[in-house]
Amino acid sequence: xxxxxxxxxxxxxxxxxxxxxxxxxxxxxxxxxxxxxxxxxxxxxxxxxxxxxxxxxxxxxxxxxxxxxxxxxxxxxxxxxxxxxxxxxxxxxxxxxxxxxxxxxxxxxxxxxxxxxxxxxxxxxxxxxxxxxxxxxxxxxxxxxxxxxxxxxxxxxxxxxxxxxxxxxxxxxxxxxxxxxxxxxxxxxxxxxxxxxxxxxxxxxxxxxxxxxxxxxxxxxxxxxxxxxxxxxxxxxxxxxxxxxxxxxxxxxxxxxxxxxxxxxxxxxxxxxxxxxxxxxxxxxxxxxxxxxxxxxxxxxxxxxxxxxxxxxxxxxxxxxxxxxxxxxxxxxxxxxxxxxxxxxxxxxxxxxxxxxxxxxxxxxxxxxxxxxxxxxxxxxxxxxxxxxxxxxxxxxxxxxxxxxxxxxxxxxxxxxxxxxxxxxxxxxxxxxxxxxxxxxxxxxxxxxxxxxxxxxxxxxxxxxxxxxxxxxxxxxxxxxxxxxxxxxxxxxxxxxxxxxxxxxxxxxxxxxxxxxxxxxxxxxxxxxxxxxxxx
Length: 536
Fold this sequence. Notes:
Strand content: 5-15%
Largest sheet: 5 strands, antiparallel
Structural class: alpha+beta
Number of strands: 18
Shape: globular
Number of helices: 19
Distance between the termini: 57 Å
Strand order of the largest sheet: 15-16-12-17-18
Helix content: 40-55%
Oligomer: single chain
């Protein structure tokens, strides 16, 4: 018999009568703030409980996947099975056999109870055992070195809660806008196909078999793969990009990519006009956050090519009575690097507002974009050959860029070498908060990247933690996304007065030696049409 009931937050559910007492007990259990919980990929478990039963975990959650990465950032896999094997345990064999027969990972809930129950019991037990072993590791680190890991531990515990709250809040999607944009891309696809077929007399098929004879007949250049096959990637077609045939192919690909990556994806993910992205807490090796479903960090920005009349970010709206507020750290990695290195030349230049990338470009005789990308390749331990490979230039050009960078920022250059030397000597490196980074031999050149990107990730999580403590006036107000070095909020009009406080938090959570961090603020009705808020 089905019955309806309402949870403590006012949401209505229908459940089998026999489940009511179980759900009531779950509410009582998870509402206890004094209980500590362990889970592997905790956001999934927390989301399942909230979606299915309206249950919110109020106690401390220890995510064993997150802390497996804190324990050692250099493993290939952090799934529960891989983590279990590293402590001498194996996953439940009957369930593995059942899934192998079904060929579908999602079939585990359809397994017979005599397989399912021992499987979920073992998952819970493995998570608890992993949590206890991880805590022992961090306690031993705290006793054996002067670098205390507990700041990182506390930060990640808080991040699990804060990021889950962001995911739960979600993004409001303009569904009709997405439908119009999808139709526009479909028309662009058909237009490009007709143009190709008019120019070539051939039915459009984007394949090597179709394109190679057409290119050969028209005398158009294309690339070769390492084994000598014809290549028609965008890079390989660069020499022929002025050709109308090539232009039609690239327009077709561009529109198809936008349609599938953005509009189809957004429409598939939305439920009642809302999308709840998955925010991965520290899956990058440097501990930076990433986002999937959708991949918000890969959306085009103002620096990208013109998106036409349907910019991607315009699809995401402020809630009724609210505005989108974006607070973005300015040149965050460059500022942190220069401050940690105590590079007086760079600190003075940044404080005076000089265009550092253009200065290097002028000295090296290259475009600003090459100077900018070369700076980060060099800053993160790349030698001349690696800089050349990263930028796609010859060694002579890379050498000119590296010399210009060393002249402009001598201490930054030396600091990178010191970080690499430390990692080579000790087999481990640290960021300013005490997070450890491990390396395979020969890969210590990555340490400057880990130190600075890792440090920026710590700062962003520290800022998120403090912002989460603000008591907004309206329940619609709150953080909705961390994108690279940016925090995006949905703020009700009654809470816009908190913007200076949020900006101050972001600029002061890191205590600099000489160079403070700076944050720009922009505000608008959606995530694209934002105007800079001066004197915030």
